[in-house]
Design goal:
Layout lengths: L9 H10 L5 H27 L5 H18 L3
């Protein structure tokens, strides 16, 4: 596994430590980075799927509205 070194300005680190006794910055940044990568991969997948679609933009917008209405109805909104 590759390591990423992040420097935290001393003022921020001291304030964070003052507010929370034990902050595991490594875990926070690791989870955040993985989540960002996961989101980017999903966006890439969706762009790939959309590029192969024969659905016109107007039709896609109409379909999105139908889906939103269905969700709202299901949840009593």
């Amino acid at each position: 596994m590759e390591k990423l070194v992040i420097e935290i300005p001393e003022g921020y680190k001291k304030e964070a430590e003052r507010l929370v006794k034990e902050i595991k910055f490594e875990q926070i940044f690791s989870k955040s980075l993985l989540r960002c990568l996961e989101i980017e991969l999903k966006k890439e997948l969706l762009r790939n799927i959309a590029s192969k679609s024969e659905l016109k933009e107007e039709e896609a917008m109409e379909l999105a509205e139908e889906v939103k209405e269905g969700i709202a109805k299901r949840h009593g909104l």
